[in-house]
Every structure is written in structure tokens, then in C-alpha cells.
Amino acid sequence: MRTDSSPGTLPAREHLPAAPAGTPVLDVVIPVYNEEKDLQPCVRRLHEHLDRTFPYAFRITIADNASTDTTPQVAGRLAAELPEVTTVRLDQKGRGRALRAVWSASDAPVLAYMDVDLSTDLNALLPLVAPLISGHSDLAIGSRLARSSRVVRGPKRELISRAYNLILRGSLQARFSDAQCGFKAIRRDVAQVLLPLVEDTGWFFDTEMLVLAERAGLRIHEVPVDWVDDPDSTVHIVRTATDDLKGVWRVGRALATGSLPLDRLARPFGDDPRDRDLEDVPKGLARQLVGFCVVGALSTLFYLLLYSGFRVFVGSQIANALALLVSAVANTAANRRLTFGVRGPGGAVWHQAQGLVVFGIGLALTSGSLAALNAAASEPAHSTELAVLVAANLAATVLRFLLFRAWVFPERREDDAPSAASYDARSAAPYDAPNVAPYDSAPFRARDAADPWRDTTVQLLPVRPHDTDARDLR
What does pTM read for this prediction? Predict the structure, then answer.
């Protein structure tokens, strides 16, 4: 359970409030470079789909990446004809650069983007953004590699896509399935904090954003999509793959050295249900099980080595008792510190005494097993003795964990907590940081409730058809 009570930069996720009429809830960005042929049918098709199916106000933003053909003029005509369409021109190329510029300046609470070829079926757009509107998730991605996705593309692109995602899983421990499907969305409050941490301005922008979000504990929703490959795609596969591998190395090195301030993306304490004090719900069970199993495996190995050594000099019962006694003391000490997190010498003697009681139960199980074996065979083989002892120790291990958790190292109850006076005496210096005041979530939440979508970034102005300088960034 998380114990840090410092305030998170992000507010707690909530369902988006009802927006005033005309205020867009969704801003769909279409990055383009020399797309004079495909831009108009793409925007009209997307606009018709949103106008017919999307239940909220929306905006379509054309992000022109320094096109050298008539793309700016086509975008300008679309913006003049369709009130929900606007266009922005950048002086430099780069999909990541375009998304960062438009997303950073947008006033819509949900931001999305899709490729101009519309390879992804638009029926997946509402399922993509719905978890962000409801407050369930922070980011959402379309996945061509999900089991229920239906994809039509050549074997070369299929192989490259799957190999790239395997690289991400192996090197960066990524758990999302499809990093580069051109169909993603993000909540604006998350984007304002996450985007400054993303360095890439090209095709690796998506991957870097998702890896950082996942490492920070943000929730990523995946939507299976129907996707048809565009045979006229202008993406340079080899150069893009090389740049992506360089990006994987850079991000992996930054994560390994801890140079990324991912704590900026923390949610306020209490937003995670694991932070709450819930009655009758076991806490830390999974972590304790893992720790107990690791300690138990090492203790069993230690026990078998001791038993084999003692067995050379004494009989099986005495060797078993001595080996179990020594390993039990070591096991209790290790579980006290590593599994149940008890620090300091206080209560150590009592814990060892309780551990010896648990040891007695284990001794009864293993000794009884040996007695039964000796009754069945007058001179059993040494390997048979070891096999019987391993089985008996497994049964004793399960019982030992239950007794440790419920009796030796029980969770502290509310009435076992330190008194208010003793807490107040320590509250001036919590967490060994005397100059950090305790976090009060009330002002933070009140401020967010008053203006949940505040933004201090500069707005990008639309390009009007009569503007003469097409390179002017608005």
C-alpha cells in the first residue's frame, strides 16, 4: 500500500462535467504532410461520422507539418466551410511535434489523433474516448494486435509491427499491445503534465508517451480495431524503425538512471482504492505471499543442507529436529523483516518465541512423516527421506504462513495505532522531511472543482482562408 501522502500533480479522475453549448469535449487532430489528395475526403468522412454518432460537441484540427504542396489551401477551405474544423500550420515536420503543439494549446478536455488515411474503422472512435470522458482511464489506444481485432495488411508490416512490440516488452517491460497504431486519445489534464516529459518529435512520440504513462501508473485503455493497410503510405519503414530503436535505447537509459520525474504524474493520495482504509479487506496479501515464498524456498534449501550435514553424524529424527530449529529461527527473522516489514528490535524475542511454536507444529508434521516412512520401510533410501520431508515441509509452509499472518505478525488495528498526542509530536517532521507540510487535499480538490479544465498555455489560432502567410504558426 502506498504510504506517500504528498500531493499528486494530477487531480483525481472524474466524469467530465457537462460543457457549455459550443465548447468541444473532443478535439481530433489529423497530422498531415503533403496530403492534398487524401485530406478533403478524410476530413469530410470524419466530420460526417462525428456529426452523426458522437453525442458531444467536437472539433477537428488539421495539423499541417510544413507541407510543400496545396495541403494548406485544402485545409483552409475545409475550415471555412465546416465550423467544427480548424487548421494549424507548423514550420517543421514531425508527427510528435504537431501533436504536442495542438494538444498543448487545445481547450477540449479529451484529445485524440488519427492518421489521414483513416485506416482504422471510425466505429472504434466512441469506444476509444468513452473511458476518458467517464473518468475511468487516462489514455486510450487502438490496438491492431488484440485477439478480436480484424486487420488487413501485408506480411512485411505485420512482422515489423509484432517484432517492434516484442522489443518494447523485452526492453522496456511495456504491457500495452500496439504502440504505433495511429489512433489514440488522452485526457487534457494528463497531457499537460505528460507531454513536457516526452522528447521525441517524430514517430516514436507515441511509444515514449505510452511507456512514460505506464511507468507512472496511469491507466491505459485498449480498444480492438478493424484496420486496413494503406498501400500508398509514405512512411519510410527502415528509417522509422531505426529512429524507434534509438528512442527505445534513450528511454530505457533514462528509466534505468531515474532521470525522469515520473512522480509529477502521481494522483492525489486516496485516488487509488489501494490507498483507502477498507474494513475486512486483507492488505498486502499478494506482496506478502511473494516474499514468504522466496524466504520459504531459501529456508527449505537451507534446511535440506543442514539436514544432510547433521544426518552424517546423528539419526534422522535428531537431524531433522536440529535442521528445522536452526532454519526456523532464520526463517522467522527473515519473514519478520522482509515479508511483514517489521523493523527494529522491539518485540523480536516474542516473535521468535511465537515462531518456535510454529516450528513445533512443523516439527510434528515432518517428524510424523518420517515416523510413518520408517514404519512402512525398515531402511528407506536417503532420497526417499528427502522427498517425504519436502512434501511435509510444503504442508507446514502453508500453515506457517497462515499463522505468521494471523498470529505472529498480524495487521495493526485502528485501536493499536499511536495516540493522537504522539502523532502530533511527530507531525512536524513527517517522513524525515521537517520542511514539508502535510498534504491537505481539500484546497486542491476545491480548486480543481472550481475550474477543472484550467489551462495556462497559449492558444493556437485557426488559419483563415484570407491569411497570406501560410507558414505563420497560430
Answer: 0.60
